Amino acid sequence: MTAADVVVAGGGLIGLSVAWRAAQRGLSVTVVDDAPGSGASWAAAGMLAPVSEAGYGEEALLRLCLASLERYPAFLDELAAATGVRVPLRTAGTLVVGFDDDDMRVLADLQGFHVELGLEVHRLLGRQVRRREPSLSPRVRGALHVAGDLSVDPRALHPALLAAAEGAGVRLLRSRAAGLLTEAGRARGLALADGAEVRAGTVVLALGPHSGDLAGTPAVPVRPVKGQILRLRGAAGLLDGTVRALVRGRSVYLVPQGDDGLVVGATVEERGFDATVTAGGVHDLLHDAIEVVPGVTELELAETLTRWRPGTPDNAPVLGPSGLPGLLLAAGHHRNGVLLTPLTGELLADLLVSGEVPALAAPFGGERFACR
Ligand code: GLY
After folding, report:
1. Contact 149 CB / ligand 1 (< 6 Å)
2. pLDDT confidence of residue 55
């Protein structure tokens, strides 16, 4: 049996960010994960693009995402100072491209939404779009350029965050959290699959799409939303920033990564924890990516994979108290886990230290789904 002030179930980006920030605030922290960083953190494209990921009516989520986006540069600076590893931040923004009159109307609406939010966005004509990204199809009629969007490689971010957390004293137990330990109506730690126990003053649930599955926890309405995603190689110089498009009603994004990588994503499927990579999923993603950037056809298809977004009924995360004393939630980040990593760590650490729910987290409590 081990003991800590805080035990975090889940060593993905969210769990590690909470653990790092909590350890920096003087708490003893243990993270439990048998394969840290192998879930959604491994699959995510790393777009830091709040507006192009947000739907209408999701303004509260959008504000949360914008607050986290603002923190990203300083977050990566701090990680670099702590670990000596500089995780690159791509700053070329997002181009949302359109092919026909319908698309151009959608882009005009989207531009109005950006302007209402006070965000910088520029409308570009086809010629201007291709000047910015020459590899785009000549069929592209126009685009919105969201200058403030960023992107990061989650596969580079995760090890840096793990090193920072361990450097701050966080202990990683490579085991699976099998159940919540409770005593006198309060969470007291985790039971592990290997039979061991970790006792703690507070348990933080950060199990991504599995956050609803831990035995003994109150009902947490997180469901897996399947995404198939592709990684291609040989894309050096192909794109400068993120490109998004609707192709025959299907949304596709292309995110350059590293020296010559390109991530193409992603399907959105309600199929539980189905891990299959399907011929249809790969076909649709490649077809749509090639419509947007014909040169994709020349690239090496390096990897196809499936992971699951942690979806909630309103697409926003569940942050803060759970209804069970001693159990905090950092779950349900759905399409915005990488983006919300810096802010989630900060908010949960504030809550752990002060016992008060920070104002930014208040709209995202578990009580909106009666998590108790
Ligand atoms: N954030 C991208 C996705 O969920 O596919």
Report:
1. no
2. 64
For residue 258, what are its two tokens? Answer: 């590293």
How many domains is the chain built from?
A: 2
Q: For ligand 1, is residue 15 a contact (CB within 6 Å)?
A: no
With 0-12 / 13-18 / 19 or more C-beta atoms within 10 angstroms meaning exposed / middle / buried, residue 179 is: middle
Nearest CA to ligand 1 atom 2: 335
* Predicted local distance difference test score (pLDDT) of residue 355: 96
Residue 75 lies in a domain: no
Amino acid 56: pLDDT: 67
Rounded to 5°, angle at Cα 16 from 267 and 27: 155
Residue 183, in any domain of the structure? yes
| Same domain flag for 301 and 332 | no
pLDDT at 54: 67
Residues 41 and 59 in one domain: yes
Instruction: Let me know whether 126 and 137 are in one domain.
Output: yes
Average pLDDT over the chain, rounded to an integer: 94
Q: In this predicted structure, what is the pLDDT of residue 371?
A: 58
Residue 155 is predicted with a pLDDT of 97
Non-local (6+) Cβ contacts of 112 within 8 A are none
Structural domain for 351, as ranges? 2-65+155-222+313-369
Side-chain half-sphere exposure of 134, counting CA atoms within 13 A: 2
- Rounded to two decimals, what is the model's pTM? 0.96
How far out from the chain centre does Cα 25 lie? 24
What integer pLDDT is reported at residue 109 of this predicted model?
A: 87
289/201 same-domain check: no
CA dist 156 → 44, 160, 218, 255 (Å): 11, 7, 34, 15
**Within the chain, which residues score under 70 in pLDDT?**
1, 54-56, 370-372
Q: Same domain, yes or no, for 114 and 231?
A: yes
**pLDDT score, position 345:** 98
Q: Is 310 in the pocket of ligand 1 (CB under 6 A)?
A: no
Going by CA atoms, what residue is nearest to atom 5 of ligand 1?
266
Does residue 227's CB lie within 6 angstroms of at least one atom of ligand 1? yes
